Amino acid sequence: MFHSSAWIWSKANRVVEGSEPTLDKLGGTAWTTRKTRVRKSLEDMADQLLALYAERKTAEGFAFSPDGAWQREFEDAFEFEETADQCTAIADIKKDLEKATPMDRLLCGDVGYGKPK
Q1: How far is CA 98 from CA 59, 75, 91, 101, in A?
Q2: Residues 110, 114, 116, CA angle at the centre, nearest 5°?
Q3: Which pairs with CB-CB distance under 8 Å and at least 24 residues apart come from 48-56?
Q4: For residues 53 and 50, what is the distance between their CA atoms, to the nearest angstrom?
Q5: How far is the CA of 72 from the CAs of 14, 80, 106, in angstroms?
Q6: How would DSSP label each residue in 58-70?
Q7: In this predicted model, what pLDDT tens digit does every residue of 22-79 receive, in sequence order?
Q8: Quick one: DSSP state of residue 100?
Q9: Cβ 63 vs Cβ 99: under 8 Å
Q10: Of 22, 24, 91, 105, residue with least CA distance to 61
Q11: Is the dihedral of CA 39, 41, 42, 48 positive or negative?
């Protein structure tokens, strides 16, 4: 059973915008019931995450070869200069891509940041 992280997040994040959460009296029956249900839900989610990462750990991936002359020529033609952080991210991603395991990395970046020409 393979679920994405987004699916697991959707199961964990059930608060509806604009709704007020129900408050229980500490030590009351409703509180104890809710606490038990939440504990069970968290244990189920932990089991799903363990299964997901165990499956990913044993999955076979594709190992790309290191950069060749054409790749370097293509990158050298890029008209902008990368920042130190961008160079680090590129190197880390390339290192991951050369492994025969599925890559588990998310790259986030800003678009349009900088000075206009």
Answers
A1: 15, 18, 11, 9
A2: 130
A3: 48/1, 48/3, 48/8, 49/8, 51/1, 52/2, 52/3, 52/5, 52/8, 55/2, 56/102, 56/104
A4: 5
A5: 47, 15, 23
A6: H-----PPPP-HH
A7: 788 888 999 999 899 999 999 999 999 999 889 888 898 899 999 999 999 999 999 9
A8: S
A9: yes
A10: 105
A11: positive
Does the predicted TM-score (pTM) go above 0.70?
no
CB atoms within 10 A of CB 78: 8
Q: Which two tokens stand for residue 79?
A: 């008209």
User: What six digits make up the tokens of 57?
Assistant: 């750990």
Residue 6 contacts residue 52 (beta carbons within 8 Å) = no
